[in-house]
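Consortium newsletter contribution from the modelling node. Members have asked for a concrete example of what our holo predictions look like. Here is one, prepared for the aspartic acid complex that several groups have been discussing at recent meetings.
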Amino acid sequence: MITALGKPMPRCNLSVVLCLLLVSVTARAAEAPIALVIHGGAGVADRAQMTPEREASYRAGLTAAVDAGYAVLQRGGSSLDAVATAVRMMEDDPQFNAGRGAALNDDGDAELDAAIMDGNGPRAGAVAGVWHVRNPVDLARLVMDRSPHVLLVGAGAEEFALEQGVVLVPRSYFRTRARIAELAEEQQGAAEKGKAPAGNPKGTVGAVALDRAGNLAAATSTGGLANKHAGRVGDSPIIGAGTYANNQSCAVSGTGDGEYFMRQVVAYDICALVAYRHLTLEQAVTEVIHEKLRATGGTGGVIAVDPAGNIVMDFNTVGMFRAARDSRGRRDIAVYRDK
Ligand code: ASP
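And here is the predicted structure:
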């Protein structure tokens, strides 16, 4: 190799330069933050009603899901794969209100909603009111990746699942004994009070992540509210309401009273405050969850992450099942405000 002065560059210099380049590239990759945050719903029972066994079981479910999703990021995987992995695990865990063990509607069926969003693009896919899809988050991903649409519902969504080779399961797969009992209780309560059924939100699942490439993603999956009217769709599959991701601002997954989250476009509102008013992620979440949502009587919480890897998990309920891991060494599993 010839230098600018026309002299041959000494070999040792070239290898030093290459070495330095390699070191700086590796260091930059190692420095790029990664983070995964998950929730298992804001419908946490009061401490007095929560048994230590149940709490331990929820914590174990959260730990398994956050570790599985975080392992994807550690291997250099995408934030989309990480959120899908974590949500899929919680859909398969019957204690959460998503996939198997989802809350039942007033016909006694699980009617499932899910969404996934790629902050790079951004791109999004969602399904609502499906009855036979074991992992609705995966079908939402297929809608995003293999269709020109964002949201497919009911029979059309299931037809799309069949076209994509997704194996459907019978409705009985989702109906656990605990959810059948919960529905009976809700219906009895509604009959006694003589008012329209409106179950408490319980155990919806979601995840948000930042990967090494700087891409954000969010996913949410739910059975909605126990004893909801057949055909009711909540905020979870509505892009901007319960799920949102944009690499320019943040990624959010919500849980709580879906109707309030939809009317206030909660997830998008948080990211808009970050993008347009330049609030920190924490300030934006505080304003939306503790001021705007509370002012209308809406209850719930969100998990959120921004491009710098800042994590926020906040709620205006008694608690929110949640967990977080990041490359700064954070590893939190929590249920109530004080963990
Ligand atoms: N947000 C969900 C819904 O309204 C319920 C929940 O978060 O538990 O469908």
